[in-house]
Write a structure and sequence with these properties.
The protein is mainly alpha-helical. The protein is built from five helices and two strands; from the N terminus they run ββααααα.
């Protein structure tokens, strides 16, 4: 049965069994992680190609989605280690590999481009919100992983744009030309 009626009065249970209000920062945090996971799914739906680079991105994003479920479990106080230092290092490796193929960035970029690029930016900003919400409820490793994940989405936006031959849009302070 999908409904339990146990949350009808504004409370919910964590995996630990502890009951909290539905507006508790922990619930906000893992709700935002769930939202991010949905955005990543939408991003994946927009990357349809037989190109090997696209296949690598799809594989990485599926890994990210699984780790986001792990993060939700950690935030709901499920026992165990859900995000490890090795997961942070994995994101860093992917970021470094993509950056090696991109031109040096010399100015702030506008969150613009093709649909997949824009979806990366939405993922990045939702990820940053999750990070802010986790200040009081995530472990240091979990927060570090989410911080790297937002960096990953930024670099992925540039990488996908480059694969698609899209021109980057740079911020022009006060309407500069």
């Amino acid at each position: 049965m999908i409904y339990t009626k146990t949350g009808d009065k504004g409370e919910t249970s964590l995996a630990s069994g502890r009951r909290v209000r539905k507006d508790d920062v922990r619930i906000e945090a893992y709700g935002t992680v769930d939202e991010l996971n949905s955005w990543v799914g939408l991003l994946r739906a927009g990357i349809q190609s037989t190109d090997r680079s696209a296949d690598r991105v799809q594989t990485a994003l599926e890994w990210v989605q699984n780790k986001l479920f792990n993060l939700g479990a950690a935030l709901s106080e499920a026992p165990g280690e859900w995000i490890a230092d090795a997961d942070v290092k994995q994101l860093e490796a992917w970021i470094d590999a993509m950056q090696a193929e991109l031109p040096h960035q010399t100015a702030f970029l506008l969150p613009a481009g093709g649909e997949a690029v824009c979806r990366c930016h939405v993922c990045r900003t939702v990820c940053r919100r999750a990070e802010r919400l986790m200040l009081d409820c995530g472990s240091e490793t979990e927060r570090k992983w989410v911080n790297r994940l937002s960096d990953y989405f930024f670099v992925l936006s540039r990488y996908i744009g480059a694969l698609n031959g899209e021109k980057e849009s740079f911020w022009k302070k006060n309407g500069e030309k």
